[in-house]
UniProtKB/TrEMBL annotation:
It comes from Frigoribacterium faeni. Transmembrane segments: none annotated. Residues 134-148 have a biased composition (Basic and acidic residues). This is Terminase small subunit. Pfam families: Terminase_7. Residues 1-10 have a biased composition (Low complexity). Residues 1-20, 134-160 are annotated as: Disordered.
Length: 160
């Protein structure tokens, strides 16, 4: 008698039968171009409330903003997404200027967009790499044939 405890339920009996099916409302997406980073100020004038003391963006934030522009994820960003990321850019700049208290909020905001492999896995996002991997495998196999007199080695021998 293998194992302990009762046998598991049949697969067709495990699913909740009283759960309502989840339906999603599908709306058309209006894809937006990435806006430029806005002018950044450090202080507000006490008398009339206008912003003064224009400051440059940290170079690391400028590169971070360009990274989002070039990301494959950006192909589906809407105006709202870019607006949220623009607010996040302000946090990013402040963080790199020494306000490390912003790190948790910055991490949470970037995670919403799939900044790390773990974030993308949680969001069920993956990058299509199959064609590139197949090309690399074919190239390795043909080069191993050339090196070993036209005989294809087993995958274990080629490291595939």
């Amino acid at each position: 008698m293998p194992g302990r405890g009762p046998a598991p339920k049949a697969a067709n009996k495990r699913a909740r039968r009283n759960a309502e099916p989840v339906t999603m409302r599908i709306l058309p997406a209006i894809i937006a171009e990435q806006p430029e980073l806005p002018t950044r100020y450090k202080a507000k004038d006490d008398e009339d409330g206008t912003w003064r003391d224009e400051v440059d963006w940290p170079m690391v934030t400028v590169r971070w903003w360009a990274m989002w522009r070039d990301s494959p994820l950006a192909a589906a960003f809407t105006f709202n997404d870019w607006s949220f990321l623009m607010d996040t850019a302000l946090l990013h700049a402040e963080f790199w200027e020494g306000n490390v208290k912003l790190a948790p909020e910055l991490r949470l905001r970037e995670a919403k967009f799939g900044a790390t492999p773990e974030d993308r896995a949680r969001l069920r996002i993956t990058f299509a790499q199959a064609e590139e991997a197949e090309t690399k495998t074919a190239t390795r196999r043909s080069s191993s044939r050339d090196r070993f007199g036209g005989v294809a080695l087993p995958q274990e021998a080629t490291g595939d």
